[in-house]
Amino acid sequence: MPVRRDESRPNIGGALLAFATVFLVFHHVPSFAGDRAGDWIDLVTPFAVVASSAFLLGRRAPGYALAVAVVGAVLYVDGHGIHLAANSIGHEELSGDAEDVTHFWDETWGHAEWHLGWFLLILGFCLAERARLVRVSRPFAVLGALFLAWTLFTSTVEGGTWWLELAATAVFVPWALVSRRPLLSAFAGAFALAALAIGVWALWQGGVPQFSEVDLL
After folding, report:
1. What is the spatial distance between Cα 210 and Cα 165, in angstroms, rounded to a whole number?
2. For a tag site, which of 11, 127, 169, 181 has the least CB within 10 Å?
3. How far apart are CA 83 and CA 208, in angstroms?
4. How many CB atoms lie within 10 A of CB 42?
5. pLDDT average per 10 residues of sequence, the chain (217 residues)
């Protein structure tokens, strides 16, 4: 029996779901584990992200896609490290200039660099997809998109980088509508859902405050 064309392509749905799950877990669990335990868990985050990224990128990624992914990984790891160091110091009793400095490196610079690296990693995956024929099984695509959408929403709102998420949505959604590739479509769907959630949050709150600044009870 001849093999259908789509079925002859490698299925990277499991790699997509692994990548989305890593972000879902490591971008949320440290917040619930407490300051000290959360810092120790966060030490594992970049290792898990880089490993899952390499798994999704595959061994045959073209040079330009690999270059974008490497830059994204470096920005992610560096930004995460800056955030973690400043956040950990910020758990101590600080005042005056020390508090201002930790706030800048944690909440402003660290988050922006960290999340920009995350989005560049995704861009690298989508560029690599152009050079190879792959498929993503529907259940993995849906779960991966939902996991990523929730993490994008919570991370960028709490991180104050929601504007960066909206800018990425403006790039990925039109690209997916034109190209109609499975991995790109899954990522575009995640960005779009997160942008929708940010819009709902903004309408509800009359702005985009961090979750930690709002009494939801």
Report:
1. 15
2. 11
3. 21
4. 21
5. 56 94 94 84 92 90 92 93 80 65 73 93 94 88 97 95 97 96 96 98 95 79
